[in-house]
Amino acid sequence: MSMLRKAMHYLGLAPDDEYDEDYYDEPAPAAQAPARGAYVPPEPPDAHHAAVRPLPRTAEQASGQVPAVRTTGVVRPLTPQGTAKPFAMSPTSFNEAQSVADKYMAGIPVIMNLQGLERDLSRRLVDFASGLCYGMRGSMERVTNQVYLLTPSNVEVSAEEKRRLRETD
User: Fold this and answer.
1) Domain for residue 27, yes or no?
2) Domain that holds residue 115
3) CATH code for position 164
4) Within 13 A of 136's CA, how many CA atoms are on the CB side?
5) pLDDT for residue 119
6) E-strand stretches of 87-132
7) pLDDT tens per residue across span 3-17
8) Spatial separation of the C-alpha atoms in residues 68 and 41, rounded to whole Å
């Protein structure tokens, strides 16, 4: 075999002459015993020996009532912690984005004032903050021009606090 043909075979670009097209045998008739080493599917289980059995219904389930929630488990639903006072900051460089994220991830709402920053830096910080809020299932809200409120998912900022923020800026 030439070097070019070997390279084409290696890359899978040449036809495979090695394989015979009559490779697959005809299926054996059902009356014959399977050949030695052939796959034999398992027999279906009897209906009397089923692996799944229904559980008895309780009185609550039979009447259609919803069973009471047990509070003894370790996992509890996340409930809002109430209102929280936002932390205000005016970053001057992209290096301060980490402190925004640290406060936000600690469950503290953050007011990010981007007034007076270059357009590119302001855009990068907004992109970072929106990704942070999306990834942590929180929300980002524009309070005024170039001022944003980042609220974690387990915290809510009262309407009065939001109104006060709009008035001060």
Assistant:
1) no
2) 87-168
3) 3.30.110.150
4) 24
5) 92
6) 87-89, 110-113
7) 888 888 778 787 766
8) 45
Which of 19, 36, 18, 17 lies closest to 28, judged by CA?
36
Residue 97 lies in a domain: yes
Q: How far apart are the first and last CA of the chain?
A: 80
163 assigned to some structural domain: yes
d(CA 32, CA 114): 82
List the chain residues with pLDDT less than 70. 1, 16-35, 44-84, 165, 168-169
- Measured distance CA(134)–CA(140) in Å, rounded: 9
Tell me, what amino acid is at 87? F
Q: What's the angle, vertex CA 18, arms to CA 15 and CA 23, rounded to 5?
A: 105
d(CA 138, CA 115): 23
Assign 3-state DSSP to the chain and report helix, strand, coil percentages, each to 5.
35, 10, 55
